[in-house]
């Protein structure tokens, strides 16, 4: 984030119920000592053993007794649910808890705990906030060009602190009256997301194309995928239903194993059929969002394919084949689905082939090759279609090294990071991310252990003594060698339950349909936290200024076992989930976050990577009836009208009717 050089808009924050932590007094970044009313500012962070790497422009205290800093480039944005601020902000009232502040080249933003964002014009900041031993005030100070202090607070109002603005605040966003236009931008993409292996059917059986799950299916390690929901034979069934919801985008994947079932042997008929599916989307008014690799690859490449040095080159061959056939009709692309989840599932958790556990070195190599594949794929797509919009979508994770690190590596060059400075920058980003994404309540110890352990094992960031890991950095080579400064056109994210600490559970814990003796939660026990989606979107915007965002996946799971559907333990259903998550998306766009699309996972219950028990569909599937061995249901697996809810939300938001997001009577 840039620093405009303009004077700061004034801001005073009132802390309720807890004092400022005694972790050391603060000094201004320019060495000046500031005061704000009765709040003294003196001393130095450095004297307390804390050396800021850049000017500190903000600070927030939490009841846990720590503080976090906000830096001019937006290194830290949020401060957790404990930091509660009240009072007028920049001349505009703030009537909800605020948890952070971020600075950008065209303004600064107050980040609220419930996902609201408040903008106050083109303010920039210098100096520092805070004061040791001050119970009721955190002040903002700025300095003159000569470094003399200039307090900009008003300590006279007994009912609360007032801001003394030095630049005018912009008018609040106007309400959108019903019928006057859409709540979201007219080009906003509403869609549903699917994946070939999960919906097509016809893999890994006798005479069928085989992918890297073939051995697991054939040996009984996982449930066979079978006919899935027959998308390959009957794609119009899914396309008609998606169009009937009002979707203007449909996400599906091309299955490499189907197009190239044997090395060097291309099934042109399969590629042409994918072309007809693209045409079917366009004929129904839906922009296809095509994923080139959704976790699977041909079995002849082997289960350990992504550890091979030639894997990015082999993937590039596939991209050139597929894009060469479809680029004229497809603008929106996902190169590889959830690089982070694929690497974690394959080499850390053992839930994807090859089923390795805690193989951290191989995980790093695979991640590096996958990121390299994204970059070469991005370049190839843009050579074939210069106006393409290309992304890779991470599964959201609260641990920096499992999620945001990958995006930062792809964006470092475009953010002005010199290659030799990459490790220092990654270290700063890691620290900022930790403050922006506080640990989940009740699971802080587990979360911190995961963050610290994975940071210590990461190939990126400084080690003690200034050394760094010598793991392969082919992805960095590719990023800095690319013809494109930024090899990511939009930040794609898949938002479910990102808090890593919540996924570790004691064996014997309650779950839908009984108890689980696994040490981790099941998909149907993921915590639903729509407010977290708004915060996540704002954080990603602050970390990637000026780059659009896509919610490529977002969905709710329940369990169906032996034909019996189990309700979720938390009582959530999909209609509520849709309303609240789309309300969070709207709140983010209202606040200026450039969210350009939302794809719900998924249109229909499908094969969830080894099992049909997890159900995510807007439409349920009865796998015990029907002439094909299954039949579509008109409700979801919980018996609700999730599809109808999504249809009404899409229509309402396009008409400017926000009431469609309200809780149903």
Task: Note down, in words, how this protein is organized.
- This protein is α/β, with parallel strands linked by helices.
- The longest helix is centred in the middle third of the chain and has 25 residues, at 360-384.
- The protein starts with 13 loop residues before the first strand and ends in a 10-residue tail after the last helix.
- 53% of the residues are buried.
- Residues 1-180 have low confidence and may be disordered.
- DSSP, total strands: 28
Silhouette: globular
Helices, by number, come to 15
Instruction: Characterize the largest beta sheet: strand count, sense, and whether it forms a barrel.
Output: 8 strands, parallel, barrel
Provide the gyration radius in Å: 26 Å
End-to-end separation in angstroms reads 44 Å
Mean of pLDDT: 78
Share of helical residues:
25-40%
Poorly predicted segments = 1-180
Estimated structural class? alpha/beta
Order of adjacent strands in the largest pleated sheet: 14-15-16-17-18-19-22-25
Task: Tell me the fraction of residues in β-strands, as a range.
Answer: 15-25%
